[in-house]
Amino acid sequence: MDDEDTGEQGLGRRERDILALERRSFPGPGAKERAVREELGLAPVRYFQLLNALLDDPRALAHDPVTVNRLRRIRETRRAER
Questions:
Q1: Of 42, 81, 76, 77, which Cα lies nearest the Cα of 18?
Q2: Is there a contact between 22 and 71 (Cβ–Cβ < 8 Å)?
Q3: Which residues, at least 6 apart from 37, have a Cβ–Cβ distance to it below 8 Å?
Q4: Dihedral over Cα of 78, 49, 58, 36: its sign
Q5: 7 Cβ neighbours under 8 A, 6+ residues apart
Q6: Which of 3, 5, 13, 47 could form a disulfide with 36 if both were Cys (CB 3.0 to 4.6 A apart)?
Q7: At what angle are helices 65-81 and 44-55 packed, to 10 degrees?
Q8: DSSP letter (8 states) at residue 10
Q9: 48-69 per-residue burial string, b: 16 or more CB within 10 A, e: under 16
């Protein structure tokens, strides 16, 4: 693996792209899902599976602590509501 694919934190291109997409805001319903399909080439269900696993990855926390911690808080709030 070269540095371009794994990055300095050990995250692959896809993982970094997922975190970058999560930093963005989207104008309306369906816009995020459309971006997931068009920009990442993933089905939204698969995207959210990968994102959920990424939130538990210490490399993701090291790469983007603000985004990862925000998403972890949201996830925990939703779990507590169930």
A1: 42
A2: yes
A3: 43, 44
A4: negative
A5: 13, 16, 63
A6: 47
A7: 110
A8: S
A9: eeebeebbeeeebbebbeebbe
- Would the CA dihedral through 37, 22, 14, 46 be positive or negative? negative
Give residue 32's pLDDT. Answer: 95
In angstroms, rounded to a whole number, what is the distance separating the alpha carbons of residues 22 and 65? Answer: 12
pTM of the model: 0.83
Amino acid 4: pLDDT: 47
How far apart, in whole angstroms, are the C-alpha atoms of residue 58 and residue 29? 31
Q: Which residues contact 44 (CB under 8 A, 6 or more apart)?
A: 33, 36, 37
Backbone angles phi, psi at 59, to 5 degrees: -65, -35
**Is the pLDDT reported for residue 3 higher than 70?**
no
Q: What distance in Å separates the CA atoms of residue 34 and residue 26, rounded to the nearest whole number? A: 10
- Quick check: 23 and 64 in contact, CB under 8 A? yes
